[in-house]
Amino acid sequence: MIHYNQSTIQNWERFYRANLLQCITGFKSANLIGTINAEGVPNVAIFSSVVHLGSNPALVGYINRPIAAAPHTLANIEATGVYTINHVTTEFTDKAHQTSAKYALNVNEFDATGLTMEFIEGIKAPFVKESNIQYAVQLVEIVPIRHNQTFLVIGSITDIILKTITPASDGFIAIEKAGSMACLGADAYYTGQLIQRYRYAKPNEPTQSILQNIC
Protein backbone atom coordinates (compact mmCIF):
# COMPACT_ATOMS: atom_id res chain seq x y z
CA MET A 1 0.00 0.00 0.00
CA ILE A 2 1.15 3.53 -0.79
CA HIS A 3 -0.07 6.46 1.31
CA TYR A 4 0.63 10.04 0.25
CA ASN A 5 -0.20 12.85 2.67
CA GLN A 6 -1.13 16.41 1.73
CA SER A 7 2.38 17.72 2.29
CA THR A 8 3.86 15.12 -0.07
CA ILE A 9 1.22 15.83 -2.73
CA GLN A 10 1.87 19.55 -2.60
CA ASN A 11 5.62 19.08 -3.06
CA TRP A 12 5.41 16.89 -6.15
CA GLU A 13 6.75 18.25 -9.43
CA ARG A 14 4.01 20.21 -11.23
CA PHE A 15 3.31 17.89 -14.16
CA TYR A 16 3.65 14.73 -12.06
CA ARG A 17 1.14 16.10 -9.56
CA ALA A 18 -1.33 17.17 -12.24
CA ASN A 19 -1.17 13.84 -14.04
CA LEU A 20 -1.61 11.74 -10.91
CA LEU A 21 -4.49 13.83 -9.55
CA GLN A 22 -6.27 13.74 -12.90
CA CYS A 23 -5.89 9.96 -12.91
CA ILE A 24 -7.35 9.29 -9.46
CA THR A 25 -10.57 11.13 -10.36
CA GLY A 26 -11.16 8.47 -13.01
CA PHE A 27 -12.09 8.32 -16.67
CA LYS A 28 -13.60 11.48 -18.12
CA SER A 29 -15.21 12.34 -21.43
CA ALA A 30 -12.92 13.79 -24.09
CA ASN A 31 -14.51 16.82 -25.74
CA LEU A 32 -13.50 19.62 -28.05
CA ILE A 33 -15.08 23.00 -27.36
CA GLY A 34 -15.48 25.16 -30.44
CA THR A 35 -15.71 28.95 -30.13
CA ILE A 36 -15.21 32.06 -32.20
CA ASN A 37 -14.09 35.51 -31.07
CA ALA A 38 -15.60 38.89 -31.83
CA GLU A 39 -13.16 39.35 -34.73
CA GLY A 40 -14.22 36.06 -36.34
CA VAL A 41 -11.17 33.95 -35.43
CA PRO A 42 -12.25 30.37 -34.61
CA ASN A 43 -10.81 28.42 -31.70
CA VAL A 44 -10.98 24.79 -30.66
CA ALA A 45 -9.63 23.28 -27.44
CA ILE A 46 -9.82 19.94 -25.68
CA PHE A 47 -11.49 19.64 -22.27
CA SER A 48 -11.97 16.66 -19.98
CA SER A 49 -14.17 18.43 -17.43
CA VAL A 50 -17.55 18.58 -19.19
CA VAL A 51 -20.28 17.49 -16.79
CA HIS A 52 -24.05 17.07 -16.93
CA LEU A 53 -25.74 19.56 -14.59
CA GLY A 54 -29.42 18.88 -15.26
CA SER A 55 -31.98 17.76 -17.81
CA ASN A 56 -34.80 20.27 -17.24
CA PRO A 57 -33.51 22.69 -18.29
CA ALA A 58 -30.74 20.93 -20.19
CA LEU A 59 -27.56 22.27 -18.59
CA VAL A 60 -23.90 21.32 -18.91
CA GLY A 61 -20.83 22.72 -17.25
CA TYR A 62 -17.11 22.60 -17.71
CA ILE A 63 -14.13 23.89 -15.75
CA ASN A 64 -11.98 26.53 -17.41
CA ARG A 65 -8.43 26.82 -16.09
CA PRO A 66 -7.09 30.17 -14.80
CA ILE A 67 -7.17 32.91 -17.42
CA ALA A 68 -3.37 33.13 -17.59
CA ALA A 69 -3.21 29.44 -18.55
CA ALA A 70 -6.24 29.13 -20.84
CA PRO A 71 -7.70 32.48 -21.88
CA HIS A 72 -9.10 32.01 -25.38
CA THR A 73 -12.08 29.70 -24.93
CA LEU A 74 -13.46 31.62 -21.98
CA ALA A 75 -12.95 35.01 -23.62
CA ASN A 76 -14.70 33.85 -26.80
CA ILE A 77 -17.66 32.49 -24.84
CA GLU A 78 -17.94 35.74 -22.92
CA ALA A 79 -17.84 37.71 -26.18
CA THR A 80 -20.39 35.69 -28.17
CA GLY A 81 -22.38 33.72 -25.58
CA VAL A 82 -22.31 30.52 -27.66
CA TYR A 83 -20.05 27.49 -28.04
CA THR A 84 -20.14 23.91 -29.24
CA ILE A 85 -19.11 20.67 -27.57
CA ASN A 86 -17.89 17.83 -29.77
CA HIS A 87 -17.02 14.25 -28.79
CA VAL A 88 -13.51 13.13 -29.63
CA THR A 89 -13.35 9.87 -31.58
CA THR A 90 -10.62 7.36 -32.32
CA GLU A 91 -10.11 8.76 -35.83
CA PHE A 92 -8.71 12.12 -34.71
CA THR A 93 -7.37 11.66 -31.17
CA ASP A 94 -3.96 13.04 -32.16
CA LYS A 95 -5.42 16.21 -33.65
CA ALA A 96 -7.69 16.68 -30.65
CA HIS A 97 -4.78 16.35 -28.26
CA GLN A 98 -2.76 18.89 -30.26
CA THR A 99 -5.38 21.55 -29.44
CA SER A 100 -4.02 21.59 -25.89
CA ALA A 101 -0.96 23.45 -27.22
CA LYS A 102 -0.85 27.17 -26.43
CA TYR A 103 -1.41 28.84 -29.77
CA ALA A 104 -1.43 32.61 -30.21
CA LEU A 105 -4.72 34.49 -30.06
CA ASN A 106 -4.85 35.16 -33.80
CA VAL A 107 -4.26 31.52 -34.81
CA ASN A 108 -7.16 29.48 -36.18
CA GLU A 109 -6.60 26.29 -34.18
CA PHE A 110 -8.74 24.23 -36.57
CA ASP A 111 -6.24 24.98 -39.32
CA ALA A 112 -3.25 24.58 -37.01
CA THR A 113 -4.28 21.10 -35.84
CA GLY A 114 -5.82 19.77 -39.06
CA LEU A 115 -9.41 19.68 -37.79
CA THR A 116 -12.33 20.78 -39.94
CA MET A 117 -14.72 23.58 -39.04
CA GLU A 118 -18.41 22.97 -39.57
CA PHE A 119 -21.07 25.66 -39.26
CA ILE A 120 -24.80 25.18 -38.87
CA GLU A 121 -27.21 27.94 -39.81
CA GLY A 122 -28.24 30.02 -36.81
CA ILE A 123 -25.30 28.89 -34.64
CA LYS A 124 -22.35 31.26 -34.62
CA ALA A 125 -19.79 28.93 -33.02
CA PRO A 126 -18.04 26.28 -35.13
CA PHE A 127 -18.50 22.54 -34.73
CA VAL A 128 -15.79 19.93 -35.30
CA LYS A 129 -16.86 18.18 -38.50
CA GLU A 130 -15.02 14.96 -37.64
CA SER A 131 -17.08 14.51 -34.45
CA ASN A 132 -20.09 12.17 -34.54
CA ILE A 133 -21.84 13.62 -31.47
CA GLN A 134 -22.08 17.39 -31.21
CA TYR A 135 -24.18 19.93 -29.35
CA ALA A 136 -24.48 23.70 -29.27
CA VAL A 137 -24.56 25.56 -25.98
CA GLN A 138 -25.79 29.00 -24.92
CA LEU A 139 -23.92 30.60 -22.03
CA VAL A 140 -25.94 30.82 -18.82
CA GLU A 141 -23.42 31.71 -16.12
CA ILE A 142 -19.71 31.84 -15.37
CA VAL A 143 -18.98 31.03 -11.73
CA PRO A 144 -15.51 32.01 -10.44
CA ILE A 145 -13.87 29.45 -8.18
CA ARG A 146 -11.76 31.77 -6.07
CA HIS A 147 -9.74 29.09 -4.32
CA ASN A 148 -7.72 28.33 -7.46
CA GLN A 149 -8.82 31.04 -9.94
CA THR A 150 -10.67 28.60 -12.22
CA PHE A 151 -14.19 29.02 -13.58
CA LEU A 152 -17.26 26.83 -13.77
CA VAL A 153 -18.86 27.68 -17.12
CA ILE A 154 -22.56 26.75 -17.23
CA GLY A 155 -24.50 26.57 -20.47
CA SER A 156 -27.89 25.53 -21.82
CA ILE A 157 -27.98 22.96 -24.63
CA THR A 158 -29.80 24.42 -27.64
CA ASP A 159 -29.08 21.90 -30.41
CA ILE A 160 -27.94 18.26 -30.57
CA ILE A 161 -26.48 16.62 -33.68
CA LEU A 162 -26.06 12.84 -33.89
CA LYS A 163 -24.37 11.82 -37.14
CA THR A 164 -23.94 8.07 -36.96
CA ILE A 165 -26.15 6.82 -34.15
CA THR A 166 -29.81 6.86 -33.10
CA PRO A 167 -31.02 6.96 -29.47
CA ALA A 168 -32.78 3.89 -28.07
CA SER A 169 -36.50 4.08 -27.26
CA ASP A 170 -35.66 5.25 -23.73
CA GLY A 171 -33.21 7.93 -24.91
CA PHE A 172 -30.06 5.96 -24.14
CA ILE A 173 -27.17 6.61 -26.55
CA ALA A 174 -24.44 3.97 -26.79
CA ILE A 175 -21.75 6.56 -27.43
CA GLU A 176 -19.01 3.96 -27.87
CA LYS A 177 -20.72 2.98 -31.15
CA ALA A 178 -20.10 6.53 -32.38
CA GLY A 179 -16.41 6.19 -31.51
CA SER A 180 -16.54 8.54 -28.51
CA MET A 181 -13.43 8.42 -26.34
CA ALA A 182 -12.65 8.73 -22.66
CA CYS A 183 -9.46 10.27 -21.33
CA LEU A 184 -7.33 9.72 -18.25
CA GLY A 185 -4.64 11.93 -16.80
CA ALA A 186 -3.32 14.63 -19.09
CA ASP A 187 -2.49 12.57 -22.18
CA ALA A 188 -4.12 9.12 -22.32
CA TYR A 189 -7.21 8.18 -24.35
CA TYR A 190 -9.46 5.12 -24.03
CA THR A 191 -12.30 3.47 -25.89
CA GLY A 192 -15.41 2.39 -23.99
CA GLN A 193 -17.16 -0.98 -23.63
CA LEU A 194 -20.67 -1.47 -22.28
CA ILE A 195 -20.74 -3.91 -19.37
CA GLN A 196 -24.33 -3.65 -18.14
CA ARG A 197 -27.39 -1.42 -17.83
CA TYR A 198 -29.80 -1.53 -14.89
CA ARG A 199 -33.41 -0.52 -14.45
CA TYR A 200 -34.33 2.49 -12.33
CA ALA A 201 -33.46 1.59 -8.75
CA LYS A 202 -36.22 1.57 -6.10
CA PRO A 203 -35.95 0.88 -2.36
CA ASN A 204 -36.65 -2.70 -1.28
CA GLU A 205 -36.66 -4.01 -4.85
CA PRO A 206 -33.90 -6.19 -6.30
CA THR A 207 -31.56 -4.66 -8.85
CA GLN A 208 -32.67 -5.64 -12.34
CA SER A 209 -30.52 -5.61 -15.43
CA ILE A 210 -31.75 -4.34 -18.77
CA LEU A 211 -29.18 -6.19 -20.85
CA GLN A 212 -28.69 -9.92 -20.72
CA ASN A 213 -25.70 -12.11 -21.59
CA ILE A 214 -23.20 -9.28 -21.61
CA CYS A 215 -19.68 -10.61 -22.14
UniProtKB/TrEMBL annotation:
Q: Pfam families attached here?
A: Flavin_Reduct
* Protein family per UniProt: Belongs to the flavoredoxin family.
The record places domain Flavin reductase like at 32-163
Q: Which GO terms describe its molecular function?
A: FMN binding; oxidoreductase activity, acting on the CH-NH group of donors, NAD or NADP as acceptor
Tell me what this protein is called. Answer: Flavin reductase (DIM6/NTAB) family NADH-FMN oxidoreductase RutF
Q: Which InterPro entries match?
A: Flavin_Rdtase-like_dom, Split_barrel_FMN-bd
Required co-factors: FMN
Q: Which organism is it from?
A: Hydrotalea sandarakina
Please give the superkingdom of this protein's source: Bacteria
| Keywords for this protein | Flavoprotein, FMN
